Amino acid sequence: MRNVALLAVLAIGVSSITFASPVGSIQGSVKDSTGALVPGVRITLTNNSTNAKINTTTNANGEFQLLQLAPATYSLVAEAQGFKRVDVPSVLVQVDQITHLDLALEIGSLSESVQVEAVAPLLENDKSTLSSVVNSRTISDMPLNARQVLDLALVTPGVVPTAAGTQVLSFNVAGARSQSNIFMWDGVSNMDTQVDGALNAFRITDAVQEFSVQTSVASAEYGRGTGGEVDVVTKSGTNAFHGSLFEYLRNSDLDAADFFTNRNRAPKNPLHRSQYGATFGGPIKRNKTFFFVSYEGFRQVAPTVSTTEVPTLTERGQVTDPISKALLQFWPLPNTSVPGTANNFIANVGATDFDHTGLIRIDHRIGDKDVLIGRFADFQGTFFTPGALPNLNGKRECAREPERFLGGGSHL
Questions:
Q1: According to the model, what pLDDT value does residue 123 have?
Q2: What is the three-class DSSP state of 330?
Q3: Could you tell me which residues come within 8 angstroms of residue 112 by beta carbon, excluding any fewer than 6 positions away?
Q4: pTM, to two decimals
Q5: What's the number of domains the chain is made of?
Q6: How far apart are CA 229 and CA 223, in angstroms?
Q7: Among candidate residues 92, 115, 138, the one where a domain is terminated
């Protein structure tokens, strides 16, 4: 059995300083009832899940920026003397996106408040990058064969699957080669440098919060490749315990046999596939330290149809050697005929694919601005793909040995 190490990486740093992604930001302005820009307005942003707070004030032009924000839903409060407090209970920040928010203050007391519903603009006027975000709702609602989350990049305009026979089975962005794409996982490169493709064996679909695909005019922190820039963000724990439990089951009872199996009157090719797992997250210390764990398993037994030539009854009667006669008991009798060939035996030959992926993530706040993030992911699996059945001419294609993949990584 061969052992192949896919990933073994350990990196430590502070997310708000070291990495430009995966983060988003909020930009906007504050005006009074006459439309004049208001400087010195105190802005307080609160993460609704972890209660983490960030403060800033509007500049002389009445504008404010909140940068390096983890993708999440926030609430925002704007306060200034002589004006009513403005509350925005839900502000969505997505990876690699700028959320634009313009506020209007009304004359009054700070003890009074005005609640504002944030509305996404129809046009993105804060940057020139063309990108699309796939959120957790889309990830959970869209059907995914084999549950590979990167397949959902195909819902992005300008993204098409690679052609058959391509070395990297991925997708092409805006006409660029699939090997020109760049893949990031929680701000860390997720590239297989041997083929310039993504390390996509990990099954972490239920652990993904969202991911973005930049299709053109990449911002300054990107640009290593001329294709798409893909950022995957995993979920983190919150002040409330939350989790999920799932299983997707498929078997051959409801599947139709293919044309060639029907033509040869052969038994239907069986298929047994089960994908199952669970996620769980919550606080270790409220408002300070959080955890999130994920596990997903994949079990598939899918024998493949194969044909060969075996001795006929007439040929068996012509064998006189005692040893050869004894060996004939290990050969099956013919059960079909394949037009145009000498093959007279068809059977389902076993093929299996078993793997599982585990993920652990810890988030710890250091002060008001910095967050320490540690993540460990492990993938292990075996698969067996049979070769061709032996023929009477003595030639044989050897079956591949099962392969075992080990992979793990942690980063900050």
A1: 59
A2: helix
A3: 84, 85
A4: 0.75
A5: 3
A6: 8
A7: 115
